[in-house]
Amino acid sequence: MPEHEADGSPHTATPQVADFLRRRREQIAQRWADEPLFRTVFTVSRDEAVEAGKAVVDALAEVADAGRVEDPDAAGFSGVREQLARMGTARSRAGLSVTQVSSELSALWPPVDNLLLADLDQAPPEQVRTCAITLSRLLGTLRLVAMQTALSEGQALIDRQRMQLLEVATPVIKLWDGIVAVPLIGTLDSARSQVVMETLLNSVVEQHARFAILDITGVPTVDSLVAQHLMKTVAAARLMGAECVVSGIRPAIAQTIVHLGLDLGSVLTRASLADALAYCLHQLGTDIVDATPGGANLR
Amino acid sequence: MNESSPRHVAGHVPVLRLGDVLLVTLQGDLYDSAAQQLQQDLAETIAHSRVTGVVIDISGVEVVDSFLGRVLAEIAAQAELLAARTVVAGMRPAVAITLVELGLSLPGLRTALTTEAALELLDRPIVTPRSGGRRQESP
C-alpha cells in the first residue's frame, strides 16, 4: 500500500475535510440514516440510526485529523469498529452477499460528497478536487474497516461453532453399570477422532466401565482413516482393561470395508447398538428376559 | 511389604505375593535398568513360587515409552511360558493413547481397569487372553 505517497498530495486537504465533517456532522448523519445500511440495521428508531451515523462521522473526522486517511488501523476507527461489525454482520445475516454489503457501504459516499461540493461552492477548483479525493479515500478506508471487521467476526463465529460441534458431537452415555457408549454422528476427521478417543477413555475410568460401545450408525462413510481410528480407540480401551465393541455398521459400509481390504479382525463388531448392549450385558452376567410368563419367544 | 518374604523384594520395585498371585506396583518414572531387573526377578519368582498369576498395577505411571511397553509385553510372554497369567491394571487414558500411537497395542497382554478387577479376572477359568476378534458364544 502506497500509504505515504497517498498521504503526500492531499495532505493539505485533511484538516479541511475534518473541519467539514465536524461542521456538517448533523446533516451527514441525517442523510445516512435514510440509506439502506443504517435504515435496515437500526430499525427501532431513526434517532438511533442518526446517533450511530454521528459516531461514524466523528471517527472519520478524528482519522482525518491524524492524517491517516488510508490507514484502516488508525486509532480513530477503534471506537466504531464494533458498530461497523454489527452493521456488517446484520446485513450478511439478512442474506446479502459480501459484494452487496460492500456496495451498500459505498452508497454512503454520494450524500457526503454532495454536501462537500455544496460547502465548497466558493472555493477554488483545485481545493475542491483535493478535498473530494481525500474524502473519497477516507470513505474507502471506512468501507475496508467495516468489511474487515465483519469478516473477522464471521471467522470467530466459525471457530466458536467448530468448538461447540466438537463438544456436542461426542457425548458419552452410560447404558448400564459398567457399560458406556458413544454414538458417533457425522464425518470423522482426525481432530474429532482424537476428542472421541479421549472422552471415551476418560469416561471408562470415571464410570469404571468394563465395556465401551462405539456406535457408528451416524457415520456416513468409513474409509481407511476412520477404520484406523476405530482400531486405535479399540486398542487403547483394551490396554486400559475395557473391551470395546463397534456397532451400527450398515450393510453398505460393511461392503466398503471388505472392498477396501481393511482388516478389522482385532475389533469386536455387532450389527446394532441393541446387539452390542445384549452382548455386553451377557458378558457381565446379566441377561434380559421377558417379564410376561406367557412370552414364550425367548431367544 | 511386610507380608512378602525378603527375597521377593526385587531391586527398586517390590514384588508382593498374595496367595497365588504376585502383585507389582509401578510408581512414577521407571528407569530402563529397573524395568529389566524387574523382568528378571519376576521370572525367577514365578519359577520358585509357582504362582498362577501376576498383576502389574501401573496406575501410578504417567509416562510409558516404547521400551517399558516392550518390557511389559515380554514379562507377559515369559510368565505365560511359566504357566502364569499376567494382567496389567489401571493404565491411564493418556498412557493408553501414547502406546497406541507408538504402534504398541500389545495384543497378547491381558488388561484390567483396576487391581481388583485384575484379581477377579485371574480367578476366572478363562485361559485365552481377550483378543476381541473371537466371536464368543452369541447372546
What do these coordinates show?
Chain A: Residues 169-280 form the STAS domain. Chain A: InterPro entries: Bact_StressResp_Reg, STAS_dom, STAS_dom_sf. Chain A: Keywords: Phosphoprotein. Chain A: This is STAS domain-containing protein. The complex is a heterodimer of chains A (299) and B (139). By secondary structure, chain A is an alpha/beta fold. Chain A contains 13 helices and five strands. Chain A has two domains: 3-164, Orthogonal Bundle (Globin-like); 173-284, Transcription Regulator spoIIAA (2-Layer Sandwich), CATH 3.30.750. Chain A has a five-stranded mixed beta sheet with strand order 1-2-3-4-5, sandwiched between helices. In chain A, helix 2 packs antiparallel against helix 5 (46-66), helix 6 (78-93) crosses helix 9 (125-168) and helix 7 runs antiparallel to helix 9 (125-168). In chain A, 35% of the residues are buried. With 139 residues, chain B is of the alpha/beta class. The model of chain B is unreliable at 1-11 and 126-139 (pLDDT under 50).
